Amino acid sequence: MTKTELTAAIKLLDDPDKEVYKIVEQKILDEGPQIIPDLVAAFSATDSNSLIQKRLKTLIPALEFQELKDYLTIWRTKSDDFFKLFWMFSKLKFPFLSQEEYEMKFSEIYSQLPKYSELSNYTPWEKIKIFNYYFYGKLRFSPTLDEKCFDPAYCFLPNVLETRFGNPMSMAVVYMLCSQSCGFPMMGINLPKNFLLAFIDTNFQIAFYINPFNKGISFSKNEIEFFLRQQKLKTDKQFFVPCTAQTIVLRYLNYLRFTFKASQEDSQADKITSLINLFDNQLDDKIEWE
User: What whole-number percentage of the chain has pLDDT above 90?
Assistant: First the structure.
């Protein structure tokens, strides 16, 4: 479809005839995610009460979801850009959020956090204590209230950055992205019910574990073992060692689906299932992860 043809198709979105709309809708969807910028521009240029804008509110998210699936299909083989991937996840909730706006929100946070290179005279534990002072104390990041843990809105990073509240999974992701961007050697730990992080020392060993949802408290392997006994879970190596980037994304998607189901948003939960199914390796369905 040429630019001229696309412009004409967008204008036809104003046609009240449903049969005409079905034809135009399919033509636009067939063009794929590449035309999203044109649709966003058209959305901005039309009246908020127009039929065109109402229909674009449906078409743009549909194409963005296809773009996300295409990107995730490639990403799972490379796993090289967490930051962009979580921006694309955010567009499930904020379809008109630009990458520049997303990056700006994070930049505002980074600028107020200590950099790892500035803390060379401190022990690893002291470094994290200083980081936590700024992250939880100065910036006031906090765990969501119990009832909000089931609200899908708190899974999306822009909302976490705006409100400074996050659920167990989104808080872990924000903490991980922020600390890694500040140079901290942090990796994910795939523990059921509590996704953790690990501080990696100069010998590439785990210095200690961190729970981002509990104010960044640090603890040892013994405490994880005690937690597993409490939960009546078998001790498994995967609960103690750094996990892959794909596992982090699967835990995030699993939690997002969990919140959509809890909110009875079944169609959204089905979308997330389709994303989870793109991965060859799945979380063990015999374990209750959330």
Answer: 86
